[in-house]
Design goal:
The complex is a heterotrimer of chains A (481), B (94) and C (486). Chain A has 481 residues and is of the alpha+beta class. Chain A has 3 domains: 6-294, no CATH class; 300-414, no CATH class; 422-480, Arc Repressor Mutant, subunit A, CATH 1.10.10. Chain A has helices at 56-68, 166-182, 223-242, 288-295, 302-313, 317-323, 327-339, 344-362, 373-384, 390-403, 407-414, 422-435, 437-445, 451-461, 468-480, and strands at 6-17, 54-55, 76-77, 79-83, 93-97, 106-111, 117-129, 133-135, 142-146, 153-159, 195-205, 215-220, 251-255, 260-263, 276-277, 284-285. Chain A has an 8-stranded mixed sheet with strand order 6-7-10-1-11-12-13-14. The model of chain A has no long low-confidence stretch (mean pLDDT 93). Chain B is built from 3 helices and 3 strands; from the N terminus they run H-H-E-H-E-E. Chain B has helices spanning 3-12, 22-36, 72-76; strands spanning 61-62, 82-83, 86-90. In chain B, strands 2-3 form a two-stranded antiparallel ribbon. Helices cover 39% and strands 13% of the residues of chain C. Chain C is α/β, with parallel strands linked by helices and 486 residues long. In chain C, helix 2 packs antiparallel against helix 3 and helix 7 runs antiparallel to helix 16. Chain C has helices spanning 8-16, 22-40, 48-63, 105-112, 155-162, 179-185, 219-229, 247-250, 273-288, 304-319, 338-349, 352-365, 371-394, 417-421, 428-433, 461-474, and strands spanning 43-46, 74-78, 116-121, 168-173, 188-191, 211-216, 259-263, 292-296, 397-401, 437-445, 448-456. Chain C has a domain at 3-259 and 430-479: Amidase signature (AS) domain (Amidase signature (AS) enzymes), CATH 3.90.1300.10. The chains are: A alpha+beta (481), B alpha+beta (94), C alpha/beta (486). Chains B and C meet through helix 1, helix 2 and strand 3 of B and helix 10, helix 11, helix 12, helix 13 and helix 14 of C. Strand 2 (54-55) of chain A pairs parallel with strand 1 of chain B, so a sheet runs across the interface.
Chain lengths: 481, 94, 486
């Protein structure tokens, strides 16, 4: 998307559901998946006469987040009413924070695949309550409202419009996703809607100072869709501008089936939210002592862990970032390295490579890995000590993954020990040379490419077990004559 | 107050407003707003707005415990239209 | 003395001494309610059968030597308090069919004391009004003269107490809605300090101004009832965590040396000369009792009504947004789409004054007007609160008239909203500043009651109640019952 004429400007608004036991203003449970309206009490339903009381854990979690993004924590923050009518909003207003959010300006650093480092500004993060859900299918001429989700605590994280490509946006989104899970303030489950993202996208002529008109894209519930939605939207806007039109400031929905964004009919009109401080709630005081208390509970943050990995294990910033994308993954990797400290790079490659692929294929998390760090380390030891080649190790890994057994058992069972005895290898080479006089002559005549043929033949003859490095060396000597 | 303003406010407040009602509201709102415009003469340069009548109070925090249980049948006894435990509204297209 | 004119303390003593039973008392009052309902229209719902049941239970408790000072004593609740299993309408078509699924904290507390609920009192719709003429269920009439209004918004509660249909009633005060009807009906009304009484279950009009309080025949009765009603409620974030003093014991606090502030602004033009005379006579009584009168001035007090009529409508426009025909309340028939559902349910459900205030509130909060109106009004509010604070550095209690005139004719002030709003000219200041205030009867003008208002510092209810009690020991205005209701 690197366009010469046009520059893309992206800001993200992330809504993360806080992993509290009860809702932000009522004592209803927050667990996902309950039958419709089973978790909506009188306060959640906005019944006449009910009043909100603030959940202490929501405040702690917000402060925790603020500290992790190096933001100022507002000593007295204020809840405000955002007034609008929608069936999933029972009171006819959402309790949110407007002029005085609990978390003020902070930042998040991202690392791109090519190693570029970028600091994304975070304008603010504030507490608010989630709305309910509307179901539009299967009810004939009606929509059905389920208010279980109404009142679940949210932290809304607003970035500065600092991202300049879909890639940057995804990197930032992933980083925040990682962070909230590290802090254990959000489970980050995008399918269940506990981590949602709206993208504000605009384009402008490269070099222009003023921002272009932006469109807000809602309903993006996966990292992949974020990328696709932004790409589509940027192309759409450039198209409009290049044909002399004007981009409308509007809210658009991403349609994953069609791969496009479309205007949201029901929210088309500009809403006057008439924000004012909620008179049912008092200002939220956060003292220095309270903040210090929260700071003491912060775990090693992703950036800290990544920096430590990069330094200790000589990893690139990008690789360190991948390996620390979740606390569980970081801990797993560190456990593996502990057992094979002489070759952290090997550990990194395997964790990011084979292990990640297997987890992906089975659709499971690192926490559910079929192989413990000790098992994986055991396999890596056998590569390091020359028992098997890297290629054979892949076969061993698959067998280990399927059965859960250790490397040595699989190697013994399948007889996959590498052949590192020079004499044995030479014998095999001799045999191949003997049965391939033509290729031998051609090679000696200058067809260097045929080297691969000999390598392949010896490997075939030895069942793939010839030590590749030794084979290479001996073969070169022998072919040279 | 102009008729369009009255219609716009009624729309924001989701109140039905037919043509015949508008003049009445124009009159009463104009009267009220004129009455409250007296506020302009107050000297409030360095005065902070007062959202709560009692000074210095801060929000009490509630422990994070879920104590409520499912009572939706009782609550939905008051509901005008319910199906499959969902509150029904005319279909909304997004 | 008849049952229906006994004080709360006398009723409690009589019940305990088995002179009469709660069942007998309750039956008597239910009969009076029924007899006078056509004339007064003071109640919206009468809960006869459950009241008799509760009375029987109370008698049992009393017989065993249990219970407290309010056990077996009846009351009516303003129909703004949610009462579990009982219709709660806020005098609005919007809630005509609404049966509350829970008890307001005030209701639960008084139920726990063993009080007997006779029914739900009529009021101005959603507490918006000063004459009880905006009720969906028809106006309430003043027992002193049925052509006149009882005041509002707690008109039904006040009329019921004045006519001795009940010895006491719960009520709410946002801009004067307890004190003004108390003054027009010749009874004692108390609006406590903001945060003293829980608002949980008290259907919200203007959240930063609303406060629940009492309507009784005397300050002594008010002390008894308020002591039971007040207290910290964890379900209300604006409820103050402060122990409730024994208001009854505090009635005996000596008066001498008390400095009474006379607000210059309360005695300016607009005050009916006859009302002024009664108020000044009452002040003379206080002087005789040893208090000192000091003139004080709150220059910005004149802006209290304009400030109120920005803040209250703003808050109510938001508080009433939940009435949308979806989960409870009135729903328009056969709505063609969501917008139609909202607009017609609300258009049909709300009366004219409520709609007027929602419109005003929506306007003053809207983009471009917020600073000029809402923010400005909240700044003026702070000016007024500061001025009261400065006054209370010099005096202990502020006194003056509760209302500019006695009760007025039904229909006489309904054409222009401003005329009606100016009824609250003396009462609104206390709501803006969150101060406790009360009204006690201090005279009759052409057989119509006049009220004396007392305003105190935050949480100085003891001071107010004892001052009022001292006056009521010296005078008998509070014992007068309107003709036909003795």
């Amino acid at each position: 998307m690197n366009n010469e004429t046009w520059e893309t400007v992206i800001g993200l608004e992330i809504h993360a559901q806080l992993a509290t036991n009860s809702k932000i203003f009522s004592a209803s449970p927050t667990a996902y998946g309950a039958p419709p309206n089973a978790q909506a009490n009188l306060v959640d339903l906005g019944y006449p006469g009910v009043l909100p009381v603030l959940n202490q854990a929501a405040v702690s979690m917000a402060v925790k987040f603020g500290l992790a993004i190096a933001a100022e924590i507002t000593p007295l923050s204020v809840f405000a009413r955002k007034n609008y009518f929608y069936p999933d909003l029972p009171k006819g207003y959402q309790i949110s924070q407007y002029e005085l959010p609990i978390v003020a300006r902070g930042h998040m650093d991202i690392v791109l695949e090519d190693g570029t480092l970028k600091r994304i500004g975070i304008t603010r993060a504030h507490l608010e309550e989630d709305a309910g859900k509307s179901l539009h299918e299967g009810l004939g001429a009606f929509s059905g409202i389920d208010l279980n989700r109404a009142g679940t605590p949210l932290i809304e994280i607003v970035s500065e419009p600092d991202m300049r490509s879909a890639r940057e946006a995804v990197a930032y989104l992933k980083k925040i996703h990682t962070l909230v899970r590290y802090l254990e303030i959000c489970d980050g489950n995008m399918q269940e809607g506990s981590f949602r993202c709206d993208a504000n996208v605009s384009v402008r002529r490269r070099g222009a100072e003023k921002l272009g008109t932006r469109a807000e894209i809602k309903n993006i519930n996966s990292f992949r869709f974020v990328e696709k939605a932004i790409h589509y939207e940027v192309a759409r806007q450039i198209d409009i501008l290049e044909s002399g039109g004007k981009v409308l400031q509007e809210t658009r929905l991403y349609d994953p089936d069609k791969g496009e964004t479309r205007s949201m009919r029901s929210k088309e009109e500009a809403n006057d939210y008439r924000y004012f401080p909620d008179p049912d709630l008092l200002p939220v005081a956060v003292s220095e002592a309270f903040i210090a208390g929260i700071r003491a509970t912060l775990p090693e943050l992703p950036d800290e862990k990544a920096a430590r990995f990069a330094a200790a294990f000589a990893l690139s910033p990008y690789d360190a970032g991948v390996l620390t994308s979740s606390r569980e993954l970081g801990d797993y990797f560190e456990a593996v390295v502990k057992l094979i400290p002489q070759d952290p790079k090997l550990a990194a490659n395997w964790v990011m490579g084979e292990l990640a692929a297997a987890l992906n294929r089975d659709g499971i998390d690192i926490a559910a890995s079929r192989l413990s760090p000790a098992r994986v380390a055991g396999l890596l030891q056998r590569i390091a000590d020359g028992t098997i080649s890297g290629k054979i190790a892949k076969e061993v890994f698959e067998a280990m993954w399927a059965s859960g057994s250790d490397a040595d058992s699989v190697i013994a069972e399948k007889g996959l020990k590498q052949i590192s005895d020079p004499a044995a290898i030479e014998t095999a080479i001799d045999a191949v040379m003997a049965k391939s006089p033509g290729q031998l002559a051609d090679y000696r005549a200058g067809k260097d490419k045929l080297f691969g043929y000999f390598v392949g033949q010896v490997m075939k003859a030895t069942g793939g077990k010839a030590n590749p490095a030794q084979l290479n060396e001996l073969l070169k000597k022998k072919l040279a004559g | 107050m102009k008729p369009e303003q009255i219609s716009a406010i009624a729309h924001l407040a989701r109140l039905s407003m037919d043509e015949a009602e508008i003049p009445r509201y124009q009159q009463s709102l104009a009267s009220i707003l004129s009455f409250v415009s007296d506020l302009e003469r107050a000297q409030t340069q360095d005065v902070t707005p007062m959202a709560h009548p009692l000074p210095g109070l801060v929000q009490r925090l509630r422990p994070d415990v879920a104590t409520e249980s499912d009572a939706h049948e009782r609550y939905q006894a008051n509901a005008p239209q319910v199906a499959a435990s969902l509150y029904l509204v005319p279909k909304v297209i997004e | 003395m008849t049952l229906h004119t006994k004080s709360l303390a006398a009723l409690a003593a009589g019940l305990r001494a088995r002179e009469f039973s709660s069942v007998e008392l309750t039956r008597t009052l239910l009969a009076r309610i029924e007899a006078h309902q056509p004339q007064l229209n003071a109640l919206i719902t009468v809960t006869g059968p459950s009241a008799m049941q509760a009375a029987a239970v109370a008698d049992g408790v009393l017989a065993r030597g249990g219970g407290g000072p309010l056990t077996g004593i009846p009351l009516v609740h303003k129909d703004i308090f949610c009462t579990e299993g009982v219709r709660t309408t806020c005098a609005s078509r919007m809630l005509d069919n609404f049966v509350a699924p829970y008890d307001a904290t005030v209701v639960a507390k008084l139920k726990a004391e063993g009080m007997i609920m006779l029914g739900k009192a009529n009021m101005d719709e959603f507490a918006m009004g000063s004459s009880n003429e905006t009720s969906y269920y028809g106006p309430v009439r003043n027992p002193w003269n049925p052509q006149l209004v009882p005041g509002g918004s707690s008109g039904g509660s006040a009329a019921a107490v004045a006519a001795r249909l009940t010895p006491c009633a719960s009520a709410t005060d946002t801009g004067g809605s307890i004190r003004q009807p108390a003054a027009l009906c010749g009874i004692t009304g108390v609006k406590p300090t903001y945060g003293r009484v829980s608002r949980y279950g008290m259907i919200a009009f203007a959240s930063s101004l609303d406060q629940g309080g009492t309507l009784t025949a005397s300050a002594a009765d008010a002390a008894l009832l308020l002591r039971a009603m007040a207290g910290f409620d964890p379900r209300d974030s604006t409820s103050v965590d402060r122990p409730v003093p024994d208001y009854v014991a505090a009635l005996q606090l000596p008066l001498s040396g008390m400095k009474i502030g006379l607000l210059k602004e309360f005695f300016e033009k607009g005050l009916d000369p006859a009302n002024e005379r009664c108020v000044r006579e009452a002040l003379a009584v206080y002087e005789k009792l040893g208090a000192r009168l000091v003139e004080v001035s709150l220059p910005n007090l004149g802006l209290s009504v304009p400030a109120y009529y920005v803040v209250a409508p703003a808050e109510c426009s938001s508080n009433l947004a939940r009435f949308d025909g979806v989960r409870f309340g009135h729903r328009a028939k056969e709505p063609k789409d969501l917008m139609d559902l909202y607009k017609r349910s609300r258009g049909e459900g709300f009366g004219a004054e409520v709609k007027r205030r929602i419109m005003t509130g929506t306007y003053v909060l809207s983009a471009g007007y917020y600073d000029a109106y809402y923010l400005k009004a909240q700044k003026v509010r702070r000016l007024i609160a500061n001025e009261f604070e400065q006054a209370f550095a010099q005096v202990d209690v502020v006194m003056g008239p509760t209302t500019p005139t006695p009760a007025f004719e039904l229909g006489s002030k309904t054409s222009d909203p401003i005329t009606m709003y100016l009824n609250d000219i003396y009462t609104i200041g206390a709501n803006l500043a969150g101060l406790p205030a009360m009204s006690i009867p201090c005279g009759l003008v052409q057989n119509l009651p006049v009220g004396l208002q007392l305003i105190g510092r935050h949480f100085a209810e003891e001071r107010l109640l004892s001052a009022a009690h001292a006056y009521q020991r010296e005078t008998d205005w509070h014992t007068r019952v309107p003709a036909g209701y003795e």
